[in-house]
Amino acid sequence: MILQRDILLDVRRLIWRIWVGGMPTGVDHVCLAYLQQYAQNAQAVVERGRVRRVLSPAQSDRLFSILRFGMAGFKRNISMLGIRAALSNFGDGQRGMGRLYLNVGHTGLEQTSSMALLDVKPIYLIHDLIPITHPEYCRVGEDARHAERVRTILHRGRGVIANSDDTVAALRQFAASDGREPPPALTAYLGTRLMIEPREASPPLDRPYFVMLGTIEGRKNHLLILNIWRDLVTSMGDKAPVLVVIGKRGWECEQAVDLLERCQQIKGHVLELPHCPDEEVARYFRHARALLFPSFTEGYGMPLIEALASGLPVIASDIGVFHELAGDIPEYFSPLDGMGWRKAIEAYAPEDSNPRARQLARMSGFHAPTWEEHFAKVDAWLPTIAKG
Question: What is 7-191+371-386's CATH number?
Answer without folding.
Answer: 3.40.50
